[in-house]
Every structure is written in C-alpha cells, then in structure tokens.
Amino acid sequence: MVYESTIAFTLDTICPWTYLAKRRMDLALEIFRSSPAAEDVKFIVKYFPYQLYPNASKEGEDKYEWYKKTKYNDSEEQMKKYTTLMSAYGVAVGINFKFGGKVANTIDAHRLIQHYQEEMGPETADKIVNSLYTQYFTQEKSPCAPETLLKAATDAGIDRSKAEAFIGDEYEGLPETKMLIREQAGNGIDAVPYIVLEGKRRDFTLEGAKEVEDYVKEFEKVAKESK
C-alpha cells in the first residue's frame, strides 16, 4: 500500500527564498518520482500562509530601494552582491529573477491560494502559487493587484467570472486565512520557507532553501520509514 505524505509548505509570495525552495523542491520531486522509492510513498503539497511584512500597504514600496535600505544598510555594493547571488541561484533552477516592482501586502494572494486549495485541490493551488511567483519575481507585477491575482487564478484553470467575484470580495476567506497565519506563528514559525514532510513514524522539518539533493534525501527517508 502506498503511503500518502503531506508536504506542508509555509510561504510568503514575495519571499525570494520560498520561490527558490519551491523550484528546488519541485525538481527533487521529479527526481524522486522517477525512482523505485516512489512506489512506497506519494507526496501531496499543501500550502500554508505566512506574512513576512503584514503591515505593508497594498500600494507598496519600491522593491529594490526597500531591500537596499532595510536589508543591506542602504549599501549599493551589498545590494549588488545580493542580486548577483540570487540571480545565479535562480538561473540554476530556471528562474530569471528581476529586482524591480513593489514590496506590498500579500494577504489577498494568500486568501486566493487558500480558498482554491480547499475548493479545487492541491494541483490548482500549486498552479496559483507558480503564477504568483512568476509574475512577481520575473515580471515585476504587484503581488496584490487584482489583475495579478486574476491571472494567477486563470492560469490555474479557474473560471474567470468566478475568480473575479472572489477577488473582488476582499472579505471572503479573509478570517480563515488570518487564522491560518496566526496558527503558523503559534507553531513557532518565524521565517519562511518552512517545510514539514509528514512521515509514518516521524515528521521531517526543513527550514530555509535547501539544495535539490537535500530534498531528495528527505523524501527517501520518508519512503524508507513508510514500509
């Protein structure tokens, strides 16, 4: 009998490290699924919300300048090192990182992911997440603009009119999403990515963006202990 393991993936849609972790994990899943160990376990990814900057406005601030000021002491040299490093990491997994756009509030993006994850399942949620990441990090789109959210929904195969109605009602799904964010904080999560692989005997926790081979090793551990 195949053991079903949930991968609880806690993310924020404007965190470059969660995007990097997701791409590496997706590559690791492809490798694992083509291995004999995949006969013993099936992994299902479930997304959980976390806001790095819950007080950010929906209008947002210039992303490049915000990063330079808040994370790199307003140093152009340090910011250049960051963009060079992140670009190299991105190229390795097929991401063409761009560093313009806005740092803005992500609650509506999380609301969208959670609503359709519950309504339509993990594959739909995965497509929404992929689209949100692509738009934000490679096309410099606002993370909370209605057009960004609508494109993510339609990219996932969701009916356009239904998606427009959901996105337009900013209170639908909001209490549930906020509760999930509080629960994540209550579980001691204070940074993302935070990934938990559900094992038959024990769970495996991965904090930060690991290498592809590291994810593969953890998948193999879950498979080994599932027998």
Descriptive overview:
The protein is α+β, with helices and mostly antiparallel strands and 227 residues long. The protein has a single domain, classed as Glutaredoxin. The protein is 53% helix and 13% strand. It is built from 9 helices and 6 strands. A 4-stranded mixed β-sheet has the order 2-1-5-6. A hairpin with a 6-residue loop joins strand 5 and strand 6. Helix 6 (146-155) runs antiparallel to helix 7 (160-168). The longest helix has 18 residues, at 16-33. The protein is globular. The mean pLDDT is 97.
Question: Any idea what the CATH architecture is?
Answer: 3-Layer(aba) Sandwich
Order of helices and strands: EHEEHHEHHHHHEEH
The average pLDDT value, as a whole number, equals 97
Can you count the beta strands?
6
Shape: globular
Low-confidence stretches: none
Please write the CATH class name. Alpha Beta
Instruction: Classify the secondary structure makeup into a structural class.
Output: alpha+beta
Q: How would you concisely characterize the structure shown here?
A:
The protein has 227 residues and is of the alpha+beta class. 53% of the residues lie in helices and 13% in strands. The strands form 2 sheets. A 4-stranded mixed sheet has the order 2-1-5-6. Strands 3-4 form a two-stranded antiparallel sheet.
How do the strands and helices of this protein lay out in sequence?
Blueprint: E1 3-11, H1 16-33, E2 41-49, E3 61-62, H2 63-71, H3 76-92, E4 102-103, H4 107-120, H5 122-138, H6 146-155, H7 160-168, H8 174-186, E5 194-197, E6 204-207, H9 212-225
Parallel strand pairs: 1-2
Antiparallel strand pairs: 1-5, 3-4, 5-6
Helix pairs in contact: 1-9, 4-5, 4-8, 5-6, 6-7
